[in-house]
């Protein structure tokens, strides 16, 4: 579904990713863990097409298409979703306005008919219920005045509404308390744990993986994946730390 080969990426004059290889098949959930500065967020931004993250070598294929040849909005329309570590605030625009425009823009790009206002609200209510988010929250300005946990839950509602084929979730567990972590984890499972979808979770900690159990865990260090294992690898990292596990 997603195949990354020999990916090199630099920010400014600094090379961050140095020949990263990764393949995620449909129906799989992969987790990437690693120390600070390893290149985890750089990988997510490179996949999403964020300006300033220059791919200097390698390839990324998404469902047979050259992902790197697409603009960010084209990647989104093709079914790629990027969850941000720090979701941005957009004053003056309500979540409902923002999400309806985003969804109908993607539907138009795929040659599908737009949803009417009533159809969209029904869809939005269903997805908000999965994340236990009150619809009044969706009437507020995008992330303005939201707590960290509310921003992440609202972002997962956005993912449910857009219904992507593949989600890249960059430290989705950041800023979540115990209850919000469980709700977000259950939401990810409900939306994305399906045989025709894929997920790449980028995280520092094992705690989210208690709820969203990955098929594979990869350790990213100095711009490359240096070790791959099953879910137990995340627990081993939590207990022993990166240095000891990578040295084994």
How would you describe this structure to a colleague?
- There is one protein chain.
- By secondary structure, the chain is α/β, with parallel strands linked by helices.
- It has a single domain, classed as P-loop containing nucleotide triphosphate hydrolases (Rossmann fold).
- Helix content is 38%, strand content 29%.
- The protein is built from nine helices and twelve strands.
- The protein has a six-stranded mixed beta sheet, with helices on both faces.
- Strand 4 and strand 5 (65-66) form a beta hairpin.
- It is globular, with a radius of gyration of 18 Å.
- The two termini are 31 Å apart.
- The model has no long low-confidence stretch (mean pLDDT 89).
Concise description?
The protein contains nine helices and twelve strands. It has helices at residues 40-48, 72-77, 95-109, 117-130, 135-139, 148-162, 178-192, 232-240, 242-247, and strands at 2-11, 14-24, 29-33, 53-62, 65-66, 80-83, 90-94, 141-142, 166-170, 198-202, 216-221, 224-229.
Number of beta strands: 12
Q: Report the structural category.
A: alpha/beta
Termini separation: 31 Å
In N-to-C order, the SSE pattern is EEEHEEHEEHHHEHEHEEEHH
What would you give as the CATH superfamily? Answer: P-loop containing nucleotide triphosphate hydrolases
* C-alpha-based Rg, rounded: 18 Å
> What general outline do the C-alpha atoms trace?
globular
Quickly count the domains. 1
Mean pLDDT across residues:
89
Report the total helices: 9
Q: Give the strand line-up of the largest sheet.
A: 6-9-10-3-11-12
What is CATH's topology name?
Answer: Rossmann fold
Q: What's the CATH first level?
A: Alpha Beta
